[in-house]
């Protein structure tokens, strides 16, 4: 029998970026907030001297235990889905801070085009430009309405950057200046400008200088140690929920953080949530936490799984195209790249940071004419200097044996003489790409695993071929002696690692017939449930999702405050 606890104003399921932002904003307003996190807590002390590449980058110390819970995957509905038993395509965090503790810090705004992608595409090219089985739709909010929430998040985390020539317009400058422009990045800048492109320094949540945010949280500048992705930052220079928003919530006295609390179900009756049921993963005791509002604030995939397990919202049916929960799963389209080997140039590639880079948007969104192209959207093209680490960096020219004396010789020769220019492409939704519950496989608590049905489409292959040409042109202009270009894309596979940018499944929009959420991230069917996060994206852009995830959380915090004041669906 589960023990029922005292009712609270708001309960949050997951304490990453979205949970941390909601906790901070709502507790500052005087609401009582309980945050439930199934992983352990972490502090800055846990990240001291964390430069153990084997332990954290390859043995995934900070990630979810796949023997306890994983996902299943298939390319199409005719295949049997199989569990992901080893980490490959994406990395699922498992501690307070979530994926926000082990991210790189690349902090891009989506383009105005993204928020009205269906309308703007039809206006410029006509409906026939959209493939029949592509379920493209607007977000239910314009960039102009949404911009202030980007501004809030970027000031909280202290984003470092400069002018983005073809990017989204800004009401305010970046909070801190751009990061250092290294010789490798300077080479990219020079080459891009010679090609009449518009390069700029990558927006970064790795601080370029000491910074104090509007909540009076002070953090130091980045040391360029090269241990960002898959690691916590020992300096707190890389923004994460643990060093920005969660301390603010705790300091109010209105927020209670409970760790090792695995939520297994949202409880509801008569069209409203009444609380959540969770299991203490240490003692295996069960608890019910009643609440006036439930915020589902875990990782994108887990948000959708919890809705399906709790029987909230109509599950998506790819055969009929009806239903909404699980609809419009999207990923990210990689494969377009150019790797350059330099005979007479050396770069200090072992120094770096997760978001130290240069990029351009000439081929992103609808910044270029798609009339004669067989794809929509595009990609941010970039070069990054994230810091090579000793174990997994042995780039060698094409034709080099994969082991032995020649491999060692070439690895040493090019250790600091290999640069890569890559394109991070948009992923657009298709009718047969979706999330549902696996009928066979279960987790350690006997609950069904989430199943992903997804593959790359002709849209993605055409995008990669076109963008591969652009990255190759840039690398040639940079002066590489040997170039290995990526211009083709095979079927999607869960291995190897590509990105943790899973999106969709509980999408926002302007109608309950086509979306789970309204533009306050409030469920149409359950007015006291709010679900910010990448699960709300109707498609994925040619950028990293975190800036948009953070902005959505600020929008949802505003919505929850309005709801607690007056109730009902917000408009």
UniProtKB/TrEMBL annotation:
<comment type="similarity">
    <text>Belongs to the GMC oxidoreductase family.</text>
</comment>
<dbReference type="GO" id="GO:0016614">
    <property type="term" value="F:oxidoreductase activity, acting on CH-OH group of donors"/>
</dbReference>
<dbReference type="InterPro" id="IPR000172">
    <property type="entry name" value="GMC_OxRdtase_N"/>
</dbReference>
<keyword id="KW-0560">Oxidoreductase</keyword>
<protein>
    <submittedName>
        <fullName>GMC family oxidoreductase</fullName>
    </submittedName>
</protein>
<dbReference type="InterPro" id="IPR036188">
    <property type="entry name" value="FAD/NAD-bd_sf"/>
</dbReference>
<feature type="domain" description="Glucose-methanol-choline oxidoreductase C-terminal">
    <location>
        <begin position="435"/>
        <end position="553"/>
    </location>
</feature>
<keyword id="KW-0274">FAD</keyword>
<feature type="domain" description="Glucose-methanol-choline oxidoreductase N-terminal">
    <location>
        <begin position="220"/>
        <end position="330"/>
    </location>
</feature>
<dbReference type="InterPro" id="IPR007867">
    <property type="entry name" value="GMC_OxRtase_C"/>
</dbReference>
<dbReference type="GO" id="GO:0050660">
    <property type="term" value="F:flavin adenine dinucleotide binding"/>
</dbReference>
<dbReference type="Pfam" id="PF00732">
    <property type="entry name" value="GMC_oxred_N"/>
</dbReference>
<dbReference type="Pfam" id="PF05199">
    <property type="entry name" value="GMC_oxred_C"/>
</dbReference>
<keyword id="KW-0285">Flavoprotein</keyword>
């Amino acid at each position: 029998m589960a023990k029922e606890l005292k009712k609270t104003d708001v309960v949050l399921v997951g304490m990453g970026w979205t949970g941390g932002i909601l906790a901070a904003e709502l507790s500052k307003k005087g609401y009582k907030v309980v945050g439930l996190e199934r992983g352990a807590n972490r502090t800055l002390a846990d990240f001291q001297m964390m430069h153990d590449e084997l332990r954290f980058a390859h043995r995934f110390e900070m990630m979810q235990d796949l023997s306890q819970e994983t996902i299943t995957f298939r390319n199409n509905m005719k295949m049997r889905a199989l569990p992901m038993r080893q980490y490959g395509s994406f990395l699922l965090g498992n501690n307070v801070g979530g994926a926000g503790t082990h991210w790189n810090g690349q902090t891009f705004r989506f383009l105005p085009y993204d928020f009205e992608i269906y309308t703007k595409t039809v206006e410029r090219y006509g409906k026939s430009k959209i493939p029949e089985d592509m379920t493209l739709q607007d977000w239910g909010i314009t960039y102009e309405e949404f911009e202030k929430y980007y501004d809030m998040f970027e000031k909280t985390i202290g984003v470092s950057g400069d002018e983005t020539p073809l990017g989204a317009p800004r009401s305010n400058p970046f909070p801190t200046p751009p990061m250092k422009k290294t010789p490798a990045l300077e080479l990219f800048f020079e080459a891009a400008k010679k090609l009449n492109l518009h390069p700029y320094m990558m927006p970064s949540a790795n601080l370029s200088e000491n910074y104090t945010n509007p909540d009076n949280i002070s953090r130091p500048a980045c040391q360029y140690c090269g241990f960002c992705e898959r690691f916590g930052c020992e300096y707190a220079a890389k923004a994460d929920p643990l060093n920005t928003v969660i301390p603010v919530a705790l300091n109010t006295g209105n927020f209670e953080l409970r760790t090792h609390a695995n939520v297994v179900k949202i409880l509801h009756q008569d069209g409203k949530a009444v609380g959540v049921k969770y299991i203490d993963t240490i003692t295996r005791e069960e608890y019910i936490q009643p609440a006036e509002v439930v915020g589902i604030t875990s990782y994108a995939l887990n948000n959708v799984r919890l809705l399906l397990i709790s029987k909230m919202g109509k599950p998506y049916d790819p055969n009929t195209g009806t239903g909404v929960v699980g609809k419009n799963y999207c990923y990210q389209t990689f494969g377009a790249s150019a790797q350059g080997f330099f005979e007479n140039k050396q770069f200090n590639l072992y120094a770096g940071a997760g978001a130290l880079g240069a990029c351009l948007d000439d081929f992103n969104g609808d910044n270029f004419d798609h009339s004669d192209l067989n794809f929509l959207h595009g990609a941010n093209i970039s070069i990054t200097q994230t810091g090579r680490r000793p174990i997994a960096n042995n780039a060698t020219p094409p034709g080099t044996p994969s082991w032995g004396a020649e491999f060692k010789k070439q690895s040493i020769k090019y250790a600091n003489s290999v640069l890569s220019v890559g394109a991070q492409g948009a992923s657009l939704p298709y009718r047969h790409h979706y999330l549902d519950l696996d009928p066979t496989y279960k987790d350690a608590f006997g609950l069904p695993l989430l199943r992903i049905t997804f593959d790359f489409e002709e849209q993605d292959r055409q995008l990669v071929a076109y963008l591969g040409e652009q990255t190759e042109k840039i690398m040639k202009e940079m002066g590489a002696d040997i170039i290995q270009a990526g211009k083709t894309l095979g079927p999607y596979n869960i291995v190897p690692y590509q990105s943790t940018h899973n999106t969709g499944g509980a999408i926002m929009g302007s109608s309950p017939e086509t979306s789970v959420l309204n533009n306050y991230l409030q469920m149409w069917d359950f007015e006291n449930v709010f679900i910010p996060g990448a699960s709300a994206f109707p498609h994925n852009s040619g950028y990293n999702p975190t800036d948009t995830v953070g902005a959505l959380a600020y929008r949802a915090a505003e919505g929850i405050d309005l709801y607690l004041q007056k109730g009902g669906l917000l408009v």
